Amino acid sequence: MMHQHGLNKYGREKGMALVMALIVVSVSAGIFAAVMYFALTGTEVSGLQRKYQSSKEASLGAIDVLTKDLLPQVLAGANLSAVVTALVKPAAVLPSITPAAGGDTCFNWKLTNPTLDWTNGGKCAATSSTTDVVGSPDIVFNLKGKSDQVKPYVVSMKIIDTVTGNSDMTGVALDLGSGVVDDASSLIRVQQFPYLYTIVTDAQQQGSTSRVNIEVLYAY
Helix, strand, or coil here: 189? Predict the structure, then answer.
Protein backbone atom coordinates (compact mmCIF):
# COMPACT_ATOMS: atom_id res chain seq x y z
CA MET A 1 0.00 0.00 0.00
CA MET A 2 2.80 2.41 0.88
CA HIS A 3 4.48 1.72 -2.44
CA GLN A 4 1.26 2.40 -4.39
CA HIS A 5 0.72 5.64 -2.48
CA GLY A 6 4.23 6.78 -3.37
CA LEU A 7 3.60 6.11 -7.05
CA ASN A 8 0.33 8.05 -6.98
CA LYS A 9 2.01 11.00 -5.28
CA TYR A 10 4.81 10.95 -7.83
CA GLY A 11 2.28 10.82 -10.68
CA ARG A 12 0.37 13.79 -9.27
CA GLU A 13 3.57 15.84 -8.92
CA LYS A 14 4.57 14.98 -12.47
CA GLY A 15 1.12 16.01 -13.74
CA MET A 16 1.29 19.32 -11.90
CA ALA A 17 4.74 19.99 -13.35
CA LEU A 18 3.39 19.34 -16.85
CA VAL A 19 0.45 21.68 -16.28
CA MET A 20 2.77 24.41 -14.97
CA ALA A 21 5.07 23.94 -17.95
CA LEU A 22 2.14 24.30 -20.35
CA ILE A 23 1.01 27.45 -18.53
CA VAL A 24 4.49 28.97 -18.73
CA VAL A 25 4.76 28.10 -22.44
CA SER A 26 1.31 29.60 -23.13
CA VAL A 27 2.13 32.82 -21.27
CA SER A 28 5.50 33.08 -23.01
CA ALA A 29 3.88 32.54 -26.41
CA GLY A 30 1.31 35.22 -25.63
CA ILE A 31 3.99 37.68 -24.57
CA PHE A 32 6.03 36.89 -27.69
CA ALA A 33 2.97 37.36 -29.93
CA ALA A 34 2.18 40.69 -28.25
CA VAL A 35 5.75 41.89 -28.66
CA MET A 36 5.78 40.92 -32.34
CA TYR A 37 2.39 42.58 -32.89
CA PHE A 38 3.49 45.88 -31.36
CA ALA A 39 6.83 45.74 -33.17
CA LEU A 40 5.18 45.20 -36.56
CA THR A 41 2.47 47.77 -35.81
CA GLY A 42 5.10 50.29 -34.75
CA THR A 43 7.03 49.72 -37.97
CA GLU A 44 3.87 50.14 -40.04
CA VAL A 45 2.85 53.31 -38.20
CA SER A 46 6.38 54.68 -38.58
CA GLY A 47 6.28 54.01 -42.32
CA LEU A 48 2.89 55.69 -42.69
CA GLN A 49 4.11 58.67 -40.69
CA ARG A 50 7.18 58.97 -42.92
CA LYS A 51 5.02 58.87 -46.05
CA TYR A 52 2.67 61.45 -44.56
CA GLN A 53 5.49 63.83 -43.67
CA SER A 54 7.06 63.45 -47.12
CA SER A 55 3.73 64.12 -48.85
CA LYS A 56 3.12 67.08 -46.56
CA GLU A 57 6.51 68.57 -47.41
CA ALA A 58 5.78 68.02 -51.11
CA SER A 59 2.50 69.95 -50.72
CA LEU A 60 4.15 72.81 -48.85
CA GLY A 61 6.89 73.05 -51.47
CA ALA A 62 4.32 73.15 -54.27
CA ILE A 63 2.41 75.90 -52.43
CA ASP A 64 5.60 77.95 -52.19
CA VAL A 65 6.26 77.61 -55.93
CA LEU A 66 2.67 78.53 -56.76
CA THR A 67 2.46 81.57 -54.49
CA LYS A 68 6.00 82.90 -54.85
CA ASP A 69 6.86 82.10 -58.47
CA LEU A 70 3.67 81.56 -60.47
CA LEU A 71 1.01 83.91 -59.10
CA PRO A 72 3.03 87.16 -59.36
CA GLN A 73 3.84 86.57 -63.02
CA VAL A 74 0.32 85.51 -63.97
CA LEU A 75 -1.14 88.53 -62.14
CA ALA A 76 1.28 90.69 -64.11
CA GLY A 77 -0.36 89.51 -67.34
CA ALA A 78 1.46 86.32 -68.34
CA ASN A 79 -0.26 83.04 -69.15
CA LEU A 80 0.22 80.17 -66.72
CA SER A 81 1.47 77.81 -69.45
CA ALA A 82 4.14 80.27 -70.54
CA VAL A 83 5.27 80.87 -66.97
CA VAL A 84 5.46 77.13 -66.32
CA THR A 85 7.46 76.51 -69.49
CA ALA A 86 10.04 79.07 -68.42
CA LEU A 87 10.06 77.93 -64.80
CA VAL A 88 10.80 74.23 -65.20
CA LYS A 89 14.36 74.83 -66.41
CA PRO A 90 16.68 73.29 -65.44
CA ALA A 91 14.61 70.14 -65.09
CA ALA A 92 17.17 68.55 -62.76
CA VAL A 93 16.49 71.21 -60.13
CA LEU A 94 12.87 72.25 -60.45
CA PRO A 95 9.87 69.92 -60.56
CA SER A 96 7.93 69.13 -63.67
CA ILE A 97 4.76 71.24 -63.61
CA THR A 98 1.75 70.48 -65.75
CA PRO A 99 -0.92 73.20 -66.00
CA ALA A 100 -4.48 72.08 -66.58
CA ALA A 101 -5.18 71.60 -70.27
CA GLY A 102 -6.78 74.74 -71.68
CA GLY A 103 -6.91 76.24 -68.20
CA ASP A 104 -5.00 79.47 -68.82
CA THR A 105 -8.10 81.60 -69.34
CA CYS A 106 -9.89 80.22 -66.31
CA PHE A 107 -6.83 80.45 -64.07
CA ASN A 108 -6.20 84.09 -65.00
CA TRP A 109 -9.88 84.86 -64.43
CA LYS A 110 -9.82 83.16 -61.03
CA LEU A 111 -7.01 85.35 -59.78
CA THR A 112 -8.77 88.69 -60.24
CA ASN A 113 -12.49 87.90 -59.93
CA PRO A 114 -14.64 86.75 -56.99
CA THR A 115 -15.77 83.15 -57.00
CA LEU A 116 -19.38 83.90 -57.99
CA ASP A 117 -18.15 85.45 -61.26
CA TRP A 118 -15.93 82.56 -62.36
CA THR A 119 -18.47 80.95 -64.66
CA ASN A 120 -19.57 84.25 -66.26
CA GLY A 121 -19.06 84.23 -70.01
CA GLY A 122 -17.88 80.63 -69.97
CA LYS A 123 -14.50 81.59 -68.50
CA CYS A 124 -14.52 78.62 -66.09
CA ALA A 125 -16.40 75.35 -65.78
CA ALA A 126 -18.88 74.66 -62.99
CA THR A 127 -16.29 72.45 -61.29
CA SER A 128 -13.78 75.29 -60.99
CA SER A 129 -14.73 76.01 -57.36
CA THR A 130 -15.30 72.46 -56.13
CA THR A 131 -12.93 70.80 -53.68
CA ASP A 132 -12.29 67.93 -56.13
CA VAL A 133 -8.70 68.94 -56.68
CA VAL A 134 -7.69 65.62 -58.26
CA GLY A 135 -10.55 65.50 -60.76
CA SER A 136 -10.30 69.14 -61.84
CA PRO A 137 -6.96 70.65 -60.79
CA ASP A 138 -5.61 74.04 -61.81
CA ILE A 139 -2.05 72.74 -61.81
CA VAL A 140 -0.26 69.46 -61.11
CA PHE A 141 3.27 69.17 -59.73
CA ASN A 142 5.11 65.95 -60.62
CA LEU A 143 7.98 65.94 -58.16
CA LYS A 144 11.00 63.94 -59.18
CA GLY A 145 12.89 61.45 -57.06
CA LYS A 146 15.10 58.43 -57.69
CA SER A 147 15.89 57.38 -61.24
CA ASP A 148 13.41 54.48 -61.07
CA GLN A 149 10.56 56.80 -60.04
CA VAL A 150 9.29 59.17 -62.70
CA LYS A 151 7.07 61.06 -60.27
CA PRO A 152 7.30 59.76 -56.69
CA TYR A 153 4.99 62.54 -55.47
CA VAL A 154 2.09 64.01 -57.41
CA VAL A 155 0.67 67.23 -55.97
CA SER A 156 -2.59 68.52 -57.44
CA MET A 157 -3.46 72.14 -56.64
CA LYS A 158 -6.53 74.27 -57.11
CA ILE A 159 -7.81 77.71 -56.18
CA ILE A 160 -11.39 77.19 -54.98
CA ASP A 161 -12.23 80.69 -53.76
CA THR A 162 -11.16 84.28 -54.45
CA VAL A 163 -12.12 87.27 -52.35
CA THR A 164 -11.18 90.80 -53.34
CA GLY A 165 -9.12 92.46 -50.64
CA ASN A 166 -8.85 96.01 -49.33
CA SER A 167 -6.80 97.56 -52.13
CA ASP A 168 -5.78 97.30 -55.74
CA MET A 169 -2.49 95.86 -57.04
CA THR A 170 -0.58 99.02 -56.03
CA GLY A 171 -1.04 98.39 -52.31
CA VAL A 172 1.81 98.63 -49.79
CA ALA A 173 3.63 95.32 -49.28
CA LEU A 174 5.34 95.03 -45.91
CA ASP A 175 7.75 92.35 -47.08
CA LEU A 176 9.19 94.74 -49.68
CA GLY A 177 10.59 97.19 -47.12
CA SER A 178 7.60 99.25 -45.98
CA GLY A 179 6.84 99.08 -42.29
CA VAL A 180 3.63 99.18 -40.32
CA VAL A 181 4.58 102.60 -38.91
CA ASP A 182 5.86 105.27 -41.27
CA ASP A 183 8.99 106.84 -39.71
CA ALA A 184 8.38 110.22 -41.32
CA SER A 185 4.75 110.79 -40.40
CA SER A 186 4.37 108.36 -37.46
CA LEU A 187 1.15 107.18 -39.06
CA ILE A 188 0.06 103.58 -38.81
CA ARG A 189 -0.53 102.15 -42.25
CA VAL A 190 -2.84 99.22 -42.84
CA GLN A 191 -1.20 96.41 -44.77
CA GLN A 192 -3.01 96.11 -48.06
CA PHE A 193 -4.06 92.84 -49.69
CA PRO A 194 -5.52 92.98 -53.21
CA TYR A 195 -6.78 89.38 -53.15
CA LEU A 196 -7.37 86.49 -50.77
CA TYR A 197 -7.16 82.98 -52.21
CA THR A 198 -8.28 79.66 -50.76
CA ILE A 199 -5.96 77.00 -52.16
CA VAL A 200 -6.40 73.23 -51.72
CA THR A 201 -3.78 70.58 -52.41
CA ASP A 202 -3.76 66.81 -52.71
CA ALA A 203 -0.41 65.01 -52.46
CA GLN A 204 0.04 61.31 -53.09
CA GLN A 205 3.12 59.14 -53.28
CA GLN A 206 3.46 56.98 -56.37
CA GLY A 207 2.13 53.48 -55.70
CA SER A 208 0.53 54.45 -52.38
CA THR A 209 -3.12 54.94 -51.48
CA SER A 210 -2.39 57.39 -48.64
CA ARG A 211 -2.97 61.06 -49.40
CA VAL A 212 -2.38 64.41 -47.75
CA ASN A 213 -4.89 67.22 -48.20
CA ILE A 214 -3.99 70.77 -47.20
CA GLU A 215 -6.13 73.89 -47.44
CA VAL A 216 -4.51 77.30 -47.05
CA LEU A 217 -5.74 80.90 -47.13
CA TYR A 218 -3.20 83.00 -49.00
CA ALA A 219 -3.27 86.79 -48.93
CA TYR A 220 -1.54 88.28 -51.97
Answer: coil
